[in-house]
Write a structure and sequence with these properties.
GO terms for molecular function: 2-dehydro-3-deoxygalactonokinase activity. The chain is about 35% helix and about 25% strand. By secondary structure, it is of the alpha/beta class.
Length: about 300
Amino acid sequence: MSSATGLIGVDWGTSNLRVMRIAEGGAVLDSRADPRGAGGLASGQFREVLHDVAGDWLNDGLPVLVSGMAGARGRWREMAYLPCPAGVADLASAVASPDDAPHVSIVPGVAVFEDGRLQDLIRGEETQVFGLDAPDDAVVVGPGTHSKWIRTADGRITDFRTFMTGELFAAIRKGTILGAEMGESGVDDEAFAAGVERSLRDPAVTAALFSVRVEGLAGRLSPASSADYLSGLLIGAEVAAQADANARPVILIGAEALSRRYAAALEQGGFRDVRIADGAAATAKGLWRIHEAAHR
């Protein structure tokens, strides 16, 4: 594999930016991060931020491929969502450049449509999926603020579903009676497992949520452990909702600690083939594969 840079890859999330020098084949040679995510930028600011972060890398005339929220509405250039099923070739054929940066290409998102109506969408995760060497008929799970459960078959994204688990967790902690005196999560694995079990047994999550208060009043759950129990309830509800996929391999892409929690919940829910992947490496390889397909 060549160690020379073949592509400048950009992963532009809502909150953060990562720019990578990518070798032929998709290996990351170097990377730089910046907190200026797409969520805080107007369309005319993206080019300047990219040059601030990696202007010296751009002087060599290398191709630049961007995935993520730079293609969202009101950002650098709005990119349409491709319908499922979608593969690498579909994405590659639909990349396009913003008006102020013809040397830059942006990857489109992918959407689920039912009877012509938009039902769900991803932007950025599609690139990670195609950077994985995933088995056929896998489920790729991206835990986070808006967790994504993405189903694949024959090298294409066939369907997916979004769960607002992370955002709901934060909102409950900050804005409801359940969050009063609640500690930080990540300290009590047993409380987390108890929350998962509660949701697997009864996936009516809005009813299950009140058990945070009930368990506390009954003396079975301490304030220090209640965040972990709440996390288990919400993640367990995700797992319960996707139980029909438990015979498929599951690949987790996300922060290490959160991915480990999801892996524990999945195993508790009867999923037997659960793997954790490197998200940055998957993004880089996915960008390379899309770039390669676009230039065949």
